[in-house]
Amino acid sequence: MIKVWITLFSLTLVIAIGAVRGLQFLNHPPSLAETHKVIEIAEGATYNSVSELLEREGLITSRIYFRLLGAWTGNEKNIKPGEYGLHTAMRPMELLDLLVRGKILHYQVVIPEGSTARQIAKLLEAAKLTEAEVFMKVVEDPTLMSEFGIEGESLEGYLFPDTYQFPKRTPPHEIVRRMVTQFQAAYDESLRRRADQLRMTQREVVTLASIIEKETGHPSERGLISAVFHNRLKKKMRLQSDPTVIFALTEFDGNIRKRDLGIPSPYNTYRFIGLPPGPISNPGRESLSAALYPADVDYLYFVSKNDGTHSFSKNLREHNRAVNKYQRKKA
User: Fold this and answer.
1) What are the phi and psi torsion angles at 283 (to 5°)?
2) Greatest CA separation for the chain
3) For 222-237, what is each residue's pLDDT tens digit?
4) Comparing 32-46, 177-191, 193-207, which segment has the lowest mean pLDDT?
5) What is the pTM (predicted TM-score) of this model?
6) Does this chain's domain 28-101 share its CATH topology with 106-186?
7) CATH node for 28-101
8) Top CATH class, 106-186
9) Buried-exposed string 126-158: b where 16+ CB fall within 10 A, e elsewhere
10) In whole angstroms, what is the distance from residue 300 CA to residue 322 CA?
């Protein structure tokens, strides 16, 4: 009988000690100091392997108690894969809650207005979200273009410039879909109605907007730049836009040379009348609007004043005077 009581007492003591340690495990983080760790839980990882990883990284004090916690809460199969930002001052329940809710890390990427698809690809590669060449292949994927009803050789022009948040390992197709979806939201019904009034296709609007975006970074000039191009198109004049030539060049060192103006590319608006075959950059909402709402002026020319703005002229004589004033003096 005494042996039975000793056994029961021992079991009770073990259980009590286990309960106390369990409460300590739940209520006390590994450290009061926040040592931040980034961990990645692979697709298909087991709860046990996650417990071992957390203990190894010093984020929990006991993988055994963390396993018991998972069983007690019924979350052994509910942990989401992905990359997490955790720290050593987190209690186990708080940590488990993040893993179950899938609060994975997101990486911010800022796409400036007027960026080309190639420039966007490099930004995403720098953020370690995808390889630039892989992204470019997706941008040129005819299946994806067909999904959005977009014609042409690529989705250049439809990768809307904005600030994005993407988790690690986001498929490139999903990144592109997100950007094109943002474009569709920006190119809303009011712009579509205006395009119909002007008898412009969506592609023509985006192409013109992409040139406007590249020609000026000054918001007050967008409508004036748009007016120059609209007026030239009506008069069957060449647009003679430097950014279209730059887009056509395979290499550009920052200077346009006379020989560049003669390249046979259909994007060279010094050689060919009308808009180029497609967009040369990815324009923002303001440039899309400017393409559809040109200023009510009869300008046909503009030249840089070397301060971020331009001088506008109605005829070639005025334009030549402006060139002499702002450009030849500079040379």
Assistant:
1) -80, 155
2) 118
3) 999 999 999 999 999 9
4) 32-46
5) 0.83
6) yes
7) 3.30.1490.480
8) alpha beta
9) eeebbebeebbebbebeebbeeeebebebbbbb
10) 13
